[in-house]
Amino acid sequence: MLTAVTDAAADLNRYPDMASVELIDHLAALHGVEAEQIVVGNGSTAVLEAILRALCEAGDEVVFPWRSFEAYPIAVAVTGATSVPVPLTADGRHDVDAMLAAVTERTKAILLCSPNNPTGPTLTQAEVERVLQEAPTDVLVLLDEAYIEFVRSPDAVESGPLLATHPRLVVLRTFSKAYGLAGLRVGYAVGRGRLVGGIRAASTPFGVNALAQVAAVASLQAGPELMARVDDLVVERERLVAALRRQGWDLPDAQGNFVWLAVGDQAGVLARAFADAGVLVRPFAGEGVRISVGDREANDVVIAVAGEYAAERPRR
Ligand SMILES: *Cc1c(COP(=O)(O)O)cnc(C)c1O
């Protein structure tokens, strides 16, 4: 993959393929859909923003779960629409009832994040089907699957069959996580052809740069090796989750490449304890701490620090 990128760097004076034809063809084959059902962009965040820009104007509303991906409220704000964040349940899952209840005649889209960043649980097939059946038909349903490659839960939503039967479903994917290309910025959406055409028309020209196109194609071709690395990470995740649960932590189902410790107002304290031990974690003030699954050694440090914290504070 690196070789492909350094080779391509010899042609930096050239414009990239404006339509990302080769990359889109590979993605269409991967998903078993037509090329016109895929739109790529400068990370899935940019694709999300293009979708919301095509859809929303001031006064419109976008419903999403919260706490979830930080880019959601920002992408909504860019369009002038209003964010309608709906609190997660106590176990870090989407509150589908509350999300459906939050829909009004101004709602243009519902965002779903599976697995949810930063808490970890996926949505189930039944939950997504329910949203698709019960939300008004003119509301777009956006399913963000940034961490799909790490999902092992048999209950997790499978978006492929739903895409075939629900024309208002759009699935967002990224090369930033399992494919390790966060710095190059490549993401995409899969949906119904007419809808995707509209999103393409509203997207910035040359949305994916030349090196990013080359790297994304090369990493799709290296898919089996990359997925073997993901498998190793999942083994470590399961070991980490099991160790933390033995310490008494009540963890939400961890289906991404991270675990979530819901320590509320102790988030800063706990994050400092991890930092002192040499592990950088992400504190969310008043809510909790997200810890990325690392290599075995780093995870052992996480287990040790979490164990000490748990021993000092039996009630969590
Ligand atoms: C990282 C992440 C993305 C991907 O963002 P990119 O713009 O593709 O890097 C999207 N959604 C969620 C939930 C994420 O965590």
Characteristic key phrases:
three-stranded antiparallel sheet; 12 helices; 316 residues; 16% strand; 42% helix; binds pyridoxal-5'-phosphate; alpha/beta
Walk me through this protein's architecture.
The chain has 12 helices and 10 strands. By secondary structure, it is α/β, with parallel strands linked by helices. The protein has a 7-stranded mixed β-sheet, with helices on both faces. Strands 8-10-9 form a 3-stranded antiparallel β-sheet, with helices on one face. The chain starts with a helix and ends with a helix. The mean pLDDT is 96. The structure holds pyridoxal-5'-phosphate. The site of pyridoxal-5'-phosphate has 13 residues, from α3.
What's the SSE blueprint?
Blueprint: H1 2-8, H2 21-31, E1 38-41, H3 44-55, E2 61-66, H4 71-79, E3 82-87, H5 96-101, E4 107-113, H6 125-134, E5 140-144, H7 159-165, E6 169-174, E7 187-190, H8 193-201, H9 210-221, H10 223-246, E8 258-261, H11 267-276, E9 282-284, E10 288-292, H12 296-312
The chain binds pyridoxal-5'-phosphate (PLP).
The site of pyridoxal-5'-phosphate has 13 residues, from α3.
- Helix fraction, binned, reads 40-55%
Strand content: 15-25%
What is the typical, i.e. mean, pLDDT?
96
Rg, please?
A: 20 Å
Bound molecules: pyridoxal-5'-phosphate
Topology, number of strands: 10
Low-confidence stretches: none
Numbering strands along the chain, what is their spatial order in the largest sheet? 1-7-6-5-4-2-3
Distance between the terminal alpha carbons, to the nearest Å? 44 Å
Number of alpha- plus pi-helical segments: 12
Derived from helix and strand composition plus strand pairing, the structural class reads alpha/beta
* Broad shape: globular
Order of helices and strands: HHEHEHEHEHEHEEHHHEHEEH
